[in-house]
Amino acid sequence: MAGWSEKKRNSPSLRVISSFVWWLQRATKMHVVANKLQLTLAILKPDCMACPHIISEIRRIMLENEFWLVRTKMVKLSREQAEEFYSVHQEKFFYNRLVTFMCSGPIGVHVLAREDAINTWRKLLGPTKVLRTVFEEPTSIRGRFGLTDTRNCAHGSDSEETANKEIQFFFPEIDIDKFREEIRKFLEEKGTMLFNEKSCEHECHN
Fold first, then answer.
1. Per the residue annotation, which of 53, 89, 110, 155 is the catalytic one?
2. Is 40 annotated as a binding residue?
3. Which residues does the annotation say bind ATP (predicted)?
4. 71 is in an annotated binding site
5. For this structure, is 155 an active site residue?
6. Is 128 annotated as ligand-binding?
7. Quick one: which of 42, 65, 182, 186 is 20 to 30 A from 51 by CA?
C-alpha cells in the first residue's frame, strides 16, 4: 500500500496539479502584493557604511524579508543638504549633532518596496534609542549594530507622507505615483524582479 501511495504521489498528473497550484498561489500572492505595494526610504548611516560586513548583513536582511530594492545610490551629504533633510528636528537638542554626523561620511540610500514596507522596515530597525534597543530588541538591526542614539546604523521613513518627501529628496527624478503604479502593473502581469548584486537593485524581467 505504501508503494502505491508513493507511485501516486509521483504520478505525472499529480505533478502537473502541484505545479498549477504553486503557480496559482504565486500569482495570487503577487496580485495581493501588487495591490498593497508601499515604498519607503532606508538610509545606511556613516557608521554603518564604514563597515562592509554590516552593509552586507543589512542588505541580506532586506532581501530575506522580501523587500525589493528598486533604487540604490551612495551619497555624501553637504551640511546644507543634511540640515534640509533633518529640518523637522531643527528645534531638537540633538539636531546639530545629527547633522554633523550625517555629513561626516558617505551614506547608502535605498528605495524599498513591499507590502507594508514602512512598518516592516522600522520593525526590523528597532527603536531609535540604542541602549533601550540592546535590551528590548537585541536581534534588531540597531540592537546588533547601533552605537549611540545618533550613530544608530540606519534610518527608515515613519509614514507614507514622509516616505514620499524623503524619496523625492534623494531621487527628484522619480514621479512617485507613476513609479509605484508601474511596479504594481508589472507585478500584476506576473513579471519577475531579479536582484542585481552589482547595482544593488532589483530589475524587471518578463
1. 155
2. no
3. 45, 94, 122, 128, 142, 152
4. no
5. yes
6. yes
7. 65
